[in-house]
Write a structure and sequence with these properties.
By secondary structure, the protein is mostly helical. 52% of the residues lie in helices and 0% in strands. The two termini are 40 Å apart.
Amino acid sequence: MNTTILRKSVLGIAGLAFAGGVFAGPVTEAHPAVDAKAVAVVQADKPGVDKSKLIPHGVQGKQSHITLDSEQTKNVKAIIAATKKSGMDERAAVVSIATALQESKLENLGHLGDRNDHDSQGLFQQRPSSGWGTVEQITDPEYSTMAFLKGLKQVDGWQDMPLTEAAQTVQVSAYPDHYAQWEQQAADLVAKHWNN
C-alpha cells in the first residue's frame, strides 16, 4: 500500500476517534473495535473547569466583549498564574480578569500623561499614591494581581457577592457597576486558560 494513502487512512481513523470522543463524551469502557492507544490520546486532554464556579450568581446586565491580542492574552495567563500562586480559586481569577478588563482592557498601561486618572497605572490602574506599590511594582502583572487579590481576600464574603460588588470593594471606582459587563468574557478566559 502506498505510504501516503496509509498515512491518510491512519489520520482519518484518529480524527474519527477524536471526533467521536468529543461529540459522544468520554469513553467509559473499552470497546473491542477501538484501539486503546487512540482512546488514551482522547482521554489525555486536560480536565475542564467547573463552570458553575466561574459565574455562581449569573451575569448582571449587558455584557461587553473585546478581541484580545497576544499581549492581552499573556496578561490573562499572568493573572491566572498569580491567582493560583496566591492559593485562590477560579472565581478569584474571574473577578481579577473582569476588573482588569474594565480598568485597562488587559493592557499593562504606563503613565498616560493628561489621560491618566491621577497616577493610576498597570492592569488594575492601581495608584502608587494610594499605597498599591511603586510604579515598577504595579506595572508588573504578577505583583499587581497579587496586590488586587490581597485586597479581595480582605473583603469578607467576596465569594458570595456579585462580581461588581467584590471588585468595587477592592478598587473603589467612580463607576462601580462597570465591572459587571466583563463577567462572561472573564469566565470564558478562565475556562480556556486555567488548566494550560
